Amino acid sequence: MKSKLVLLWLCGWASLCASAQEWAVAKLAKSSRHGEWVTVTNGARAVQCWVVYPEVKEKAPAVLVIHEIFGLSDWARALTDEVAAAGYIAIAPDLLSGLGTNGGGTSALSSSEIGRNIQRLPADQITGDLNAAADYVKALPAANGKLAVAGFCWGGGESFRYAANRPDLKAAFVFYGTPASADAMAKIQCPVYGFYGGNDGRVTLTVTNAQALMKTAGKIYLPVIYDGAGHGFMRGGEPEFPNARAGDRNARDQSWERWTNLLTKL
Question: Is residue 117 within 8 Å of 109, Cβ to Cβ?
């Protein structure tokens, strides 16, 4: 039943997300930054990643971007470009690589196929894919060796979990994602910063317990809840997003300011 509900939710969002992709594609086309596709390997798996470089003179920190439940969409690539615009090398792996037609990833899957496949991804495989992308970006000549992770929606939960599996992370940013398990929290070595919508009860109601567990484990967890914002406000609050709600737009603006300020402290 849970799987069917998730698939129905995905299908309900599909048309709205499709229209959102048009402006995301246009936004990418206008970017002056260098973005490229690269392939990294996790054992026998070939993982496609979108990498965007900042226009800076010095070596830059890297940000690993984990996509939403919708896969590596054009919006996720546009968000990755926006991170690069702020001065960071940004890399977004397609965690659905190899699951589409002819070995393709997100772009080769229908919305229902994306929903089914993303629920079936093994945790160890996700971690391996993320590690492969992280190792690649950290080794780039333009990188200064500092690494952070940020995830959105489904990717927000994976960002929390990944913080327990990557000891060299400088920070983890969780955008409306569910928390890691208590056992995983005990392994986290970096600060975790949360961004949540006040009208997103399914996720936001987990914050209080996560705070208690992280405090017990002696870890840094600093969540902020934005009044009037729903789930997915980083996408839904984009100025170009069709029928963007004021609460989502305000939350996105405030989150972006907070996020970029935190990134400067890596």
Answer: yes
